[in-house]
Amino acid sequence: MTTVQVVKDILDANERIARENRRLFDEKNIYVFNLMSSPGAGKTTLVERTIEALRDRFRMAVIEGDIQDTCDADRVARHGIPVVQINTGGACHIDGNMVRDALPALDLDNVDLLICENVGNLVCPAEFRIGENVKIMLLSTPEGSDKPAKYPLMFQESAALILNKIDLLPYVDFDMAKARKDALTLNPKLEIFPVSCKTGEGFDAWARWIERQVEEFRKS
């Protein structure tokens, strides 16, 4: 019982901070998405391609979450986009408090779209809100089509699922129909985008979708 209560207290405290973050983002009219996946699925490459696709439409900034190192933040910075690195020091996710502490490093008055790249993990990031508008799940084909069944919360909590590395479909054992079916069973409203961040195949549909989300939010 004590363990259960401690976990509940942690989640409740995080939820309060996430709501405070969300109020600030609403005040500044900033759309935020929380990008989640396992390590190596292609999150940073997706971030880079999204920047290149939308940089003429929106003022963007990025928060990078990693256990340590700045290699992903360094990659993003080369695109001339404001980026803040969060090193969790061992924690398997970023949370509302970490994001709140990172925000003073950004000029929020000049941001329309904030991309938060979470720590690579298929469990914890889904449990901790950070003040985002939506969670985005990225699954790469080499990981296997069984992941929706094995890690359901990630798919239930997400607004969109990006199926990355479709250029590898001829070489890996990935059942696209099963992945789609299992994901939509968990979350019938899930938007699904098969893409290759390497070749650009399918990427336009994702870019148009996120562009619509930002535009609709800014009009609301």
Task: Describe this protein's structure.
It is a single chain. Helix content is 41%, strand content 18%. The chain has 220 residues and is an alpha/beta fold. Helix 7 (176-186) links the parallel strand 6 and strand 7 (191-194). Helix 1 runs parallel beside helix 4 and helix 2 (43-54) packs across helix 8 (203-219). It is globular, with a radius of gyration of 17 Å. The model has no long low-confidence stretch (mean pLDDT 95).
Strand fraction equals: 15-25%
Shape type: globular
Give the fraction of residues assigned to helices.
40-55%
* Number of beta strands: 7
Which residues form runs of ≥5 with pLDDT under 50?
none
Order of helices and strands: HEHEHEHEEHHEHEH
Q: What would you say the CATH architecture is?
A: 3-Layer(aba) Sandwich
Average predicted local confidence, pLDDT: 95
Computed Rg: 17 Å
Top CATH class: Alpha Beta
CATH topology: Rossmann fold
**Helices and strands: which structural class?**
alpha/beta
